[in-house]
Fold:
Amino acid sequence: MRLLVLDVEGTLFEARIRLPGTDINSTIWQAIAHSLGDDAIAEEVATHKRWEAGDYANYMQWMEDTIAIHRRYGLSEGQFRSLIASATYNPGVADVLPRIDRRKYEIVLISGGFRELAARVQRDFLVKHAFAACEYLFGDDGLLRSWNLLPCDFAGKLDFVQLMLREYRLDEGRWVFVGDGKNDVQIAERAPYAIGYRPHADLEKVCRTSIRDFGELLRHLEEPAH
Structure:
């Protein structure tokens, strides 16, 4: 058996909105800023520039800054739930995930995005394991009150792979990664077999192969066994 480690935002779900001045695909983070208006967009883009400049000590600090924007501009539970519900799977995902042989692959979702979006995948395709960077907790007034953060983006994604390999008693070579973004470069570099889905140019350089159609995934999943 192997782990099939899947990114979520941009890989399983479409990243429909790319704010000008950003270089990282996102299904929900950027959609929230877009829904909150021009001032929120400007502040969101500014956080991306600070990240690229190395001004944040870690990914959680970046998330904290972004969460402050969401609170400042009044993100409501209704807005948030609507964005989660309206996210669209990339073409082929709904056909391919049920066809993955679970005797050969245990699916693990590792996302720098929202727990609520990863939970949709778990419900839809009976996935047991998901790690996502942020979960939102809303108050009785419908406004964002608290949150849960995990350092599972960029290099942090590798820590959760190691955790699951240990739990399943699998050696270091027994996993496959599929991702799309610049933030997936570190995990793809370490993966025994990395597949880029319509990958960012930086990611494509470090992947074993790239696919344009999710339907191609099943064929590639046979290759690590040989």
